[in-house]
Amino acid sequence: MSAASLRRAARESVSGLPRAFWWLWASTLVNRLGAFVATFMTLYLTLDRGYSASFAGLVVALHGLGGVVSSLVAGVMTDRLGRRPTLLAAQASTAFSVALLGFMEHPAAIAAVALLVGMTSNASRPAVAAMMADIVRPEDRVRAFALNYWAINLGFAVSAAAAGLIAEYSYLAGFLGEAALTLACAVLVYVKLPESRPQQDGPGTAGGAGSGGDAERTGLGTVLRDGRFMGVVGLSFLISLIFTQGSVGLPVAMGAAGFSPGDYGLVIAVNGLLIVVLQIPVTRFIEHRDPQKLLVVSALLAGYGFALTAFAGPLWAWALTVCVWTLAEIVNSPTQMSLVVRLSPVHGRGRYQGVYSMSWAVAALVAPLMAGFVIDRFGAVWLWGATGVLGTVAAVGYWLLMRGLPQAGGAPEPAASGGPAAAGSAEPVKTEPVKTAPEKAAPERAEPLAAG
User: Fold this and answer.
1) 239-255 pLDDT tens trace
2) Helix or strand run (H / E) with residue 179
3) Which residues lie closer than 8 Å to 336 by C-beta, 6 or more apart?
4) pLDDT higher than 90, residue 109
5) Which of 179, 208, 300, 352 has a CA positioned 20 to 30 A from the CA of residue 113?
6) What are phi and psi of 217, to 5 degrees?
7) How would residue 75 be classed by pLDDT, with cut points 50, 70 and 90?
8) What value, to the nearest 5°, has the Cα angle with vertex 271 and ends 307 and 295?
């Protein structure tokens, strides 16, 4: 491919998205550049503080539990208070709690603040996803979520390398650095992003599930009674159990096979590198293809990509299995996020995104227990076989769940916050006027962000 063709492809990948989206994208990137706690929590507790591996596991589990709790609370806040204030509160409180964690000495205090960090750091995800859905046109959402996911992985790849060097100098510097970058995100959100929450009209408003008349009735009970959506949440949980084994089961299995931590670092680096290199071109290829087929294929690739690990011998073979399930990750993430938005009523997007985010948080709790139990009792081969079974079940589930689901963009959708409405949209949904510093936001087209 010529240089001109590459430039044209790059322009087409990023064109047509509103300016607000890119501010949201920038805040995601900055936030992930400071991802120190989640990456080095275990090493900090065992090497720097001298605690046992079991205590470190407890603290990490509490961090995950905080994410489970905050997913639901933040989803409700996103719908009731708005996307912008929820993002601001989540990121500002994350900055405070991360900085506080660096100064904790007593084990009970460390555990309590780790729970707080887990709650605050996950609270922005429903708001980011809801804002992105508000701002981006339905036909552009797969691409927008993919670009956001690309920013997450690019930021993580850079932060992992930088944080390793920082940790050798001072873990406290890492905590304070993450706090500073997260606070910068909060400022960016406050100054640059207008509110995108659709304004709720009176009970007489027409417009179906997304109308203001249904807004007050879209509670958590509504979400939990939505059979098709909860099916997606359940399948997301299965997929999350599979992908989480890359950071849970894989290092244990490689260590048992005689490989060093450095070997594992090289193998898992393939995951981040491939996402950074392939996310955008692969998304261009899949953007307008059948999401049912994409989710079925990605589930099979994920399950059997990990299952192939049972046959890995030399280091390059382990890296090859990572290539297989990374491709599944690249396809699954934006496609599934777009599906979640399609199934969510406009005024209930925060709650729906909160319940969806909870599936990943619960998987982060269950996956380590699952890996430890299976490896200790039966061996790593059985763990990899289980991932193949989970991938098959998820693939069948996606095929059944999406039968008869209308294609994306087939139904009109209300506009939000000055963002682009779907073609043929009905009467626009009014949005709330929100002031940015120091004056009212200009009537620009807004855009979404990703899960940060």
Assistant:
1) 999 998 887 788 888 88
2) helix 171-192
3) 232, 236, 239, 295
4) yes
5) 352
6) -85, -5
7) confident
8) 60
3 state DSSP class of 435: strand
| CB contact burial 315-329 (16+ within 10 A = b; e otherwise) | eeebbbbbebbbbbb
Q: How far is CA 448 from CA 83, 197, 429, 441, in A?
A: 10, 11, 17, 16
Q: What is the pLDDT of residue 296?
A: 96
The number of C-alpha atoms within 13 Å of 313 and in the hemisphere containing its C-beta is 0
Does residue 313 surpass a pLDDT of 80?
Answer: yes
Cα–Cα distance, 111 to 98 (Å, whole number): 12
28 neighbors 450 (Cβ within 8 angstroms)? yes
From residue 346, alpha-carbon distances to 128, 214, 220, 337 in Å are 14, 10, 14, 15
pTM exceeding the 0.85 threshold for the entire prediction: no
83, 366 Cβ separation under 8 angstroms: no
Task: With H, G, I as helix, E, B as strand and everything else as coil, classify residue 260.
Answer: coil
50 CB burial (10 A radius; 0-12, 13-18, 19+)? exposed
- Rounded Cα gap, residues 341 and 336, in angstroms: 9
Write the burial class of residue 340 (CB in 10 Å: 0-12 exposed, 13-18 middle, 19+ buried).
buried
Distance in angstroms (rounded) separating the CA atoms of residues 105 and 99: 13
Q: What is the largest CA-CA distance in the chain?
A: 67
Indicate the pLDDT class of residue 24, thresholds 50, 70 and 90.
confident
CA gap 141, 449 in Å, rounded = 11
Partners of 31 in the beta sheet? none
Which two structure tokens, joined as six digits, stand for 442? 């200009």
Single-letter code of the amino acid located at 218: T
Is the alpha carbon torsion for 142, 145, 147, 150 positive or negative?
Answer: negative
The helix/strand/coil state of 203 is coil
Tell me the pLDDT band of 446, cut-offs 50, 70 and 90.
Answer: very low
Cβ partners under 8 Å of residue 180, min gap 6: 34, 95
pLDDT of 28 over the 60 cut: yes
Asked if 420 and 326 touch (Cβ cutoff 8 Å), the reply is no
